[in-house]
User: Fold this.
Amino acid sequence: MLKGGDSEPRNSNIMKMFNLLGFGEHAGSGVPDIYAAWDWAGYKEPSIEEHFGEDGPSKTMFILPLTEKDHALSEKRQEKGQEKRPETDHNKAEEIEIRVASVLEKIRENNAVSMAEIARQLDISPKKVRHAIDILKEQGTIEREGSDRKGRWKILTYEK
Assistant:
């Protein structure tokens, strides 16, 4: 959770619904951003408390203290013109754009390549490959011909 990445949501259907509506991200991907924003704002570091029941973890609490760790830090940021918090969404969008281009390049090199093979070649998770492919399909850039196992990718538009 602290490193970001994949986690198991308690209700995957609700998570999918929010993702489809554009209000959610992949489970576990926002915790490092919260830590960075909290640090940037000059607050004490968040803490995590796990409560265990008979069957294992039953509740996880993410506590965000509203206590400043250093008043001088906030003043220094204001002096440097850094009143606004850093743009994490822009970095994430750029990362996704690069990933989508990389996935498209792999498909261009081999139109029979599987998502698992793309994930292995790019050293990314299969979920990230699926997300990139979904974006390419939505853009009308690619479509799948045939079955998942024996089908091929068809590139409808391609810009290098």
